[in-house]
Amino acid sequence: MNRFDYIRPATVAEAVAAAAVPGSAYLAAGTNLLDLMKGGVMRPARLVDLARVPGLDAIEALPDGGLRIGARVRNADLAYDPGFARRFPAVAEALLSGASAQLRNAATVGGNLLQRTRCAYFYDPASACNKREPGAGCDAREGENRLHAVLGWSEQCIATHPSDFCVPLVALGAVVEIEGQAGRREVPLEEFHRLPGTTPERESVLAPGELVVAVRLPGEAAGFAGHARYVKLRERTSYAFAVVSAAACLRLEDGAIAEARLALGGVAAKPWRVPAAEAVLQGARPGAEAFRQAAEAALAEAQPSGENGFKIELARRILVRALTLAAAGTPERLPALPASPLASHSGVSLHG
Amino acid sequence: MSLSITLTVNAVPRTIALDDPRVTLLDLLRERLDLTGTKKGCDRGQCGACTVLVDGRRVNSCLALAVSHDGAEVLTIEGLAEGETPHPVQAAFIEHDAFQCGFCTPGQIMSAVGLIREGQAGDDPERVREGMSGNLCRCGAYQGITEAVLQAQRRLAEPEQEQAA
Amino acid sequence: MAELAGSATHLRHGSSIGQPLTRRDGLLKVTGQARYAADNHPPGMLHAALAVSSIARGRVTGLDVEAARAHPGVVAVMTPANRPALALHPDDKASPFVFRMDLLQDDMVRYAGQPIAVVIGETLEAATEGAALLAPRYAAEPARTGLDEGEVFIPPMVGIGAPSEVRHGDVEAGLAAAAARIEAVYETPAQYHNAMEPHAIVAAWEGDRLSIDTPSQGLTWARDRIAGLFGIAVEDIEIRSPFLGGGFGSKGLIAGPQVLGILAARLVGRPVKLVLRREQMYGPVGHRAPTRQTLRLGADAAGGLTAIQHHVRTASSSFDDFFEPAGGVTHTLYASPAIVTTSDAVRLDTGTPMFMRAPGEASGSIALEGAIDEMAAACGMDPLEFRLRNYAEVEPTTGKPFSSKALRECYAQGAARFGWAGRPLAPRQMRDADGLLVGWGVGTATFPALMFQGQARAVLRADGSGVVEIGAQDMGQGAWTALAQIAADSLGLGIDQVEFRAGHSGLPDAGIAGGSAHTATAGMAIHGAGADAIARLAELAMADGRSPLFGAGNAGVVAREGRLLRRDDESRGETYAEILARAGLGEIEGRGTGAMDPAAQEHYAMHAHGAVFAEVKVDPELGQIRATRLVGAFAAGRIINPRMVQSQYYGGMIWGVSFALHEAAVVDPRSGRVMNANLGEYHVPVNADLPSLEAILVEEVDPHVNALGIKGVGEIGVTGSAGAVANAVWHATGVRVRRFPIAVEAVAGLAG
What we know:
The structure holds three protein chains of three kinds. Chain B is of the alpha+beta class. Chain B has helices spanning 25-32, 88-95, 105-118, 125-131, 142-164; strands at 3-9, 12-18, 51-54, 57-60, 73-75. Chain B has two domains: 3-79, Roll (Ubiquitin-like (UB roll)); 88-164, [2Fe-2S]-binding domain (DNA polymerase, domain 1), CATH 1.10.150. In chain B, strand 1 and strand 2 form a beta hairpin. Chain C contains 17 helices and 29 strands. Chain C has a seven-stranded mixed β-sheet, sandwiched between helices. In chain C, strand 20 (454-461) and strand 21 (466-469) form a beta hairpin. In chain C, helix 11 (479-490) packs parallel to helix 12.
């Protein structure tokens, strides 16, 4: 790890000012940043520690029934916050399916949005990576890319965004509050992460020095609480990143789907909301046929970026699964294995 | 650069002068405070061997900058027993042979203490297994670990039940 | 709660052997007081960090040594240019047990992750960043990474001294005569030991005397190797290894990075600590080589095997020899009139492979057990019935009788406990309440009962207490406890009256803690040493007219609870303390040796056996798999401590699950680098992967392996288990996956 200047600002304004210096990085918990620094993937000259900045760690109820979540709220605190979990159970389930209990106790909401890809070539400083070093090339493209992107990738980058949390968040129309030297602005989460295109090093719309201060979930998003699930396919039962994942949130009226909010994880450089699939379901009767049509629509644009064509069909299937579970109703209590396909679903018939 | 922080480690307040902001909480404990019970297995938050409680919550100390934890209360494996009496989790780990080589054990035990404090797993073995999955054990002592956590949790709950009655 | 199955029925040799004692080092380990190598911090100690190669083959053409030196806190940079001299070239190979090392002898690179420099600093942070600042430049050559690369050759031997080809009977005739045949190709990946404790050393020189803390499964070998490399006397080397944070074979021999720590200490003239970073454990400290195994089996109409042909393709490094002996299990496991195993190999640009828990047996077992399952299916037989139909009454390839073999009991007890009866023959027949596919599989476990050579010293002291000394190594298997139990019984004392010393190179050589042979080897040495001390004590008493044992010569004496008693009249006896006091002796010493009896070995095949039954659940659409229930029943001779043996079986079974479902190194074929050299993406099982394990300790009395009747339990659990899980996946899904670990896309029917 390189030496760095350590700054501990006392206010958001001080933080933003301190981070305006080129080469700065914000430090929240550091669960991703320190990992990257230890691997030599990131070498910031200055760390601006948010530990003492007030006003970033509250979960506040909004007049519209939504919630405003401070950027430094810990993943576990959010997932176990009764008011939050009741309104947004799929988000809680996603949070609890990520990483480990220790990491969730430390990792923050803002950090989760900004976590970097797990692409092994990004993590390996000896490999060519356009994201780490613009113009260097992409060793993943012809490399070990079994778990890489199938949507929205480019010749320059086929990495995926590893977040679970962001998948239901994007489905539910979350908004990111950003503070910069020019003041405060907000961006829908769906527009927050950028696809790689020719500039994979630019992963979000944040300008240098801008700080995520909060994430807002609108009140109307709580209307999906009765039928909201997150499902995550992993290569071990816990403590693993998603091969593919899906969030499905439904609003049912008179036995039909009044509105669907759907997103996929592990498939692209951003949490991937699928409006075309949502449209397919609007007004439809929940059932295998409608779900499969929605899944086809969701992956219509998908293309393998390497030896990963199987992920396209897996993504369809996991979306169908998430829809099936969501239609059956959010359980009273999250399963012991949150988001796991192997969790007991007490009698919901999932498999043809 | 010299940075001074205060930490309460195992109930002892300490003022620590850090000559280097890169020092992690783990390396501070192990290399500078001679508290080597906390282990470094991966140094990247992927194994759980470095688990300690910070302000009562289990975290990976390898991914925590010491300087960022000014004022924190840290509990490590060395501070868990009451004098010569092992903590119920420690005792249960011995009884259930919940370790072999012992290297992951301090992290497992601190994680178990954290899990019990969180109170989310209840007496459901499946929730305990999930909740302890951030602590790898290459020897494969998971069965004993799950049994030990459940037993220790019951023992820790006993005095409360007596009080309630 | 798990019961300590079988403990009550096990024979007791004395009062301690057979008891399910808790670990004697348990309190130290649960309180953080157990000191592992990296926990040491002698005064004046510096920290060393390795810089390793990112290319797999070529030369280092430049290092920015000045940048590293200029980093605050960096004390020295060790490169081939200034590395202290060694008495031996690191590539000199005196025996198959001596492995070549990378000790900065030149600028050549022969695998990714090879050490190319060491940076020594006042702090760990400084040394680590110094190593990063070296920014090596290379002249790279193409890496050889796959099992089809380069010249294929037949190694003269596999494993350590095993033949690379074994022929028994006529396989082609057997296949020709068969009513049913199968041919299958199984592939196993490179795996890395990944003990939780990274290799570490704290080395301090005082003149030419060397003091070391490092985890070692073989203290004497480590000491001898270091003595040879540095040209110093073994007496001048002290190695402390009281606890290993896991070894699994990777700490069997001292590895290059540990020697580099010693060299660094020599260079700077101060104590140095060098601890590998996790990613640095995917190179210079060994791994299990990949294999591709081709099996051809035939069976007659009644399900009797007519032939087994097992060919293994494996790989060693470009510069040294270790060939995964995967054919070994086929020599002993199933009766067949014709058995042929052959091996060939290629050389790859990797670190040299090494023994890794059940070396050869694990890789070979998962392939053989799969092929046996396929053969059973081809014969329309239940896989357990098929295994019983082909039960080997004698060792098939040698015709030797087994010294003991309670495998039938293992099958029976395991099947009963698991509830095997009623298993549908066809696959994809069972589902749980959630609709997950359920499958049941079986595998046979086997591991040779080996012994190395070891010595021990036992002392009876004037106060009647005892001391037993042996340089044994506890890497988690429980040597501190099990060997102390043997020690206590050998001296006829309670375990708390015996001071047991181990884990130090100054103690008698215990042999290597490997090959599942440590308890037998060290145990027999202790057994002999205790018996020797007791015999000497008895001689004193029997020759002393004042002793109640005077003249007991022909009748003999018995040692029990600190007393010697006349065998023909146990009312006549006296305490050890009384005998020593009258003789005016402060103590009396005995010596013992543990080693295989060559005569017994000549006449008997010696193996532990077991049967593992596995249940898996599989998501039919998504392919995620969980091994929901495993029952293993193992027979391994006398059990010294059933609690610890049960833990060994559990550990082995989890390794089996991991082999089948989880772990693999992902190697980039272009660079030769392991792309998942971490614990986040090199998956080993987590707690949630193993909801239910049971291990049954099946009684087995073996009068031939050694006087204590001990076989060994450390590795057998891996065998059988891996195949049982893979076979259960087939039974759940109807998809036979022959490439491990089993991938989600393969069982989801989406593999390309």
